């Protein structure tokens, strides 16, 4: 693997892609540690140290994960990539509901360009809402309520002009992040947005490992690292697992030339939905906590008491059961809207393709739906178990939220890492080099 990595840097165009990607990601990380206007950097460092040792199961825990800790520093890139992810998910869902978007999706590159433009507009709108919410929570002290430090210490100026400037800067930071992602996709290696998420998640990994080393005995640290390596190996195995449906194309005459007669396959992954169901479920479970923040945690309200009892602590059995069921349900839902067996069957029939032993048309669609359902069942259970691992670990050991080998972090690191390695490997194979994966 190291030899292939050296050969990748010896290839001029691939070396330029790698260096450009590293350059953009470096600037991206710098923007994640630069405080927004109106923030006291010295006071915010105390907040970060205190908040990292506290329970980060609040409304914006997932945003903080995808921002690489920039949220806790109220940095220029505090929102991270989360507004774009949310906007992309919403647009994908609306594509099934709104005929206009469905028509654009079928128009090819021109339609996809229009959908991308809508996604950008929605991203900026969500960035305005999220930045306003974050600044409002920081101004009232709710964002760092576990630390006990007053908001006036890290936000000395709270006039309207300063607050509006902070909202503008954070929203502009989200727009710059979108631009960086598109630059990496066009001129770098792999999917830019995925690499930026990977960078932000991996940025918090060393500090989490250091925290465990400082807080736990050596044998516990070794046991956690060994369990993490086993978990990563299992995630790699499942992420690579797929069911290949054989497809045979009959020979056909087009003008004076013969086409077809080839054999291929449809790769259906066990985890066809990826990380999206976990993000869906996490977002929904943050709504009760947001409602508590809006209604007031100290209010004598039956709804607030119910939500505070069952949906605030991430280690409560009701919370974990709800989280697991939402992940399973969203996995089936997302696979259903992203993979249409009837459409695939029609395209195969149009080009003379068929699955051996299955009649073209409706029987093919029913067969694909049957196979996809059987694959999605273990895939959704796998996602639910992986996402619950850090919660179970925290409930059993009382560890902090800094537990690095868990849930969303491992899925993102392994998934994006494998995709990036495959991208580089494809460039190497074009020049008859051995790739990373042998």
Let me know the number of strands: 5
Number of domains: 2
The CATH topology of the largest domain comes to Preprotein translocase SecY subunit
Give the distance, in angstroms, between the N- and C-terminal Cα atoms: 9 Å
What's the helical proportion of residues?
A: 55-70%
Strand content: 5-15%
Explained architecture:
With 438 residues, the protein is mainly α. The protein folds into 2 domains: 224 residues, Preprotein translocase SecY subunit, CATH 1.10.3370.10; 163 residues, Preprotein translocase SecY subunit, CATH 1.10.3370. Helix content is 68%, strand content 5%. Strands 4-1-5 form a 3-stranded antiparallel sheet. Strand 2 and strand 3 form a beta hairpin. Helix 2 crosses helix 10, helix 7 runs antiparallel to helix 9 and helix 9 crosses helix 10. About 2% of the residues have low confidence. Keywords: Cell membrane, Membrane, Protein transport, Translocation, Transmembrane, Transmembrane helix, Transport. One of its GO terms (cellular component) is plasma membrane. It comes from Haloactinospora alba.
